[in-house]
Q: What sequence folds into this?
C-alpha cells in the first residue's frame, strides 16, 4: 500500500476530527463528557444511561420552551421545526462539533443564505410558498439546490450541522422567506443556541463557548 501524501494525511486527520462520534461510547453519547458536574454527574451516577435520557429530556424541554415563550411574547416565528433537531444535538452531543454554538450558528446561517440564493436562481423571491402555490419544477429545483449548497458549503467550512438541511428547505420552500421572517429565523437560532449553552453549563456540562474542544 503506497504512503499517503501530506495533503491526504491532513484531510484524513481533519475527517476524523470532524466526526461527531469521536467522544461517544456504546453506553450513550453523554457518558464520555469529561468534566461533567452537578445534575449531569448526579443523574449518571445514580441512573446510568437512563439519567442521560432524563438530562436530554429536561434540557430539550427547557430550551424549546424558552424559544416558544419568546415566539409567543414577540409574536414572531422564532420557533420552527429544525430547532428541535438543534436542541437535541446540544443536549445529546454537547461536545461534538455538530452540537456546538459554532456549528449551529454557521450551519443555520449558511442554510438561510443558500435558501435565498436558490430562490433567486429560480425566480421565486417573493413568490407564494409551496403550500400555497403547489409543487412546481422551479420549486423542486430551488429546494434541491438549497440543500446541495448547504451541504457543500458546510463541508468546506467543516461546520456540519444536520438541522441546517431542514432550515434551508423552510426558506427555499417559501414557508419563511420574507425579510422579516428571515430575521426571525436568525434570531430564533441565536435564542436556542444561547439558551441551550446556558442550560448545559447550569446542569453540569462544560459546553464550549464557541467551538468543540480538540
A:
Amino acid at each position: 500500500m503506497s504512503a499517503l501524501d501530506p495533503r491526504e494525511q491532513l484531510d484524513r486527520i481533519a475527517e476524523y476530527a470532524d466526526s461527531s462520534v469521536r467522544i461517544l461510547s456504546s453506553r450513550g453519547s453523554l457518558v464520555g463528557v469529561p468534566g461533567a458536574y452537578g445534575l449531569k454527574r448526579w443523574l449518571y451516577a445514580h441512573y446510568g444511561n437512563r439519567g442521560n435520557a432524563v438530562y436530554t429530556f429536561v434540557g430539550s424541554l427547557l430550551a424549546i420552551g424558552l424559544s416558544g415563550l419568546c415566539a409567543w411574547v414577540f409574536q414572531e416565528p422564532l420557533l420552527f421545526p429544525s430547532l428541535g433537531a438543534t436542541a437535541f444535538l446540544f443536549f445529546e452531543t454537547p461536545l461534538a462539533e455538530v452540537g456546538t454554538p459554532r456549528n449551529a450558528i454557521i450551519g443555520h446561517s449558511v442554510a438561510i443564505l443558500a435558501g435565498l440564493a436558490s430562490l433567486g436562481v429560480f425566480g421565486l423571491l417573493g413568490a407564494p410558498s409551496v403550500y400555497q402555490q403547489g409543487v412546481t419544477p422551479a420549486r423542486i429545483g430551488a429546494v434541491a439546490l438549497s440543500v446541495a449548497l448547504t451541504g457543500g458549503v458546510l463541508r468546506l467550512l467543516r461546520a456540519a450541522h444536520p438541522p441546517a438541511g431542514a432550515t434551508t428547505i423552510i426558506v427555499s420552500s417559501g414557508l419563511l422567506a420574507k425579510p422579516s421572517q428571515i430575521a426571525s429565523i436568525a434570531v430564533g437560532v441565536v435564542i436556542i443556541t444561547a439558551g441551550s449553552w446556558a442550560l448545559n453549563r447550569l446542569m453540569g456540562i462544560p459546553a464550549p463557548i464557541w467551538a468543540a474542544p480538540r
In short: The chain is about 65% helix and 0% strand. The CA atoms of residues 8 and 79 lie 41 Å apart. Residues 16-27 have pLDDT under 50 and may be disordered. Residues 29-203 form one domain.
